[in-house]
Specification:
This protein is of the alpha+beta class. 45% of the residues lie in helices and 6% in strands. Strands 1-2-4-3 form a four-stranded antiparallel sheet. The longest helix has 16 residues.
Length: 250
């Protein structure tokens, strides 16, 4: 099977991916594509609807939980607006539209002042369907998808995550550590958000910080490794009183 482009590709602007995240940019572009073809107009806007299972079929290289996380991230960023226009009250399928106004505002604030983002995202009706086949030069200083996947510091908030880690765990790990950056980059590219990192930190600090046997595992290599999603889904432990006559309530 030829893995070079002989099928309709998923497109993404590197400048958009840099602004909102690579996975988010891929899904937002796909939603934009379907919105342009949609005839579902409600309250003056075009909408599309689909179940998460069907969305995942369009992004079969991702797991269903990853697709769900990316959609949640887009909603949190205010770039994806949801509603329910289903005729049946029990039907909870979400309807989606893109907040083009916020996207345009983001592009106008971009340090790059790239006019292509403004013109391409002001609405969902004036782009053609053809694939951009312009080849990138062999050597370039422009931001590319490869740059984003490599986890450049201006794309992923390493400092914010590690500052929170050190504050909560009482450690002094460096955000500039390449090993730590690779771990954070890997989880970010899977669709996890900064809030997810902070939640994992909170859970494991509560579990391990006061345990002499486990406190040594409060390190990026453990928390941000392959068990990250398992840690994220653990419940926050309930604090136990030191004195049986003292009661602690959340």
């Amino acid at each position: 099977m030829n893995l070079l482009i002989e099928e309709p590709p998923l497109q993404v602007l590197p400048s958009l991916a840099k602004s909102i995240g690579l996975n988010e940019a891929i899904i937002l572009q796909q939603i934009h594509y379907w919105l342009r073809k949609s005839n579902n107009v409600k309250d003056g806007y075009k909408w599309i609807y689909n179940s998460m299972t069907n969305w995942q079929k369009q992004f079969s290289f991702w797991s269903l939980p990853t697709v769900k996380r990316v959609f949640r991230s887009l909603e949190k960023q205010g770039l994806l607006i949801t509603a329910n226009y289903n005729k049946a009250g029990f039907d909870k399928t979400k309807w989606y539209r893109i907040n083009y106004e916020k996207l345009q505002h983001m592009s106008q604030r971009s340090d790059q002042n790239d006019p292509t983002m403004v013109s391409s995202w002001t609405d969902g009706s004036d782009q053609d369907d053809t694939t951009n086949t312009k080849r990138l030069p062999e050597t370039t200083t422009e931001t590319t998808t490869e740059d984003i996947l490599s986890g450049k510091p201006d794309h992923i908030p390493y400092q914010e995550i590690m500052s929170y880690f050190n504050q909560q765990a009482g450690t002094s790990y460096r955000a500039s550590s390449k090993a730590t950056q690779r771990l954070i980059s890997a989880r970010t590219n899977e669709g996890f958000t900064v809030d997810d990192f902070k939640k994992v930190i909170d859970i494991k600090v509560a579990n391990w910080k006061d345990d002499p046997k486990m406190s040594k595992y409060l390190r990026p290599a453990t928390l941000f490794g392959t068990k990250f999603e398992s840690y994220l889904n653990e419940p926050m432990p309930t604090r136990q009183p030191a004195n049986p006559y003292d009661r602690y309530y959340e």
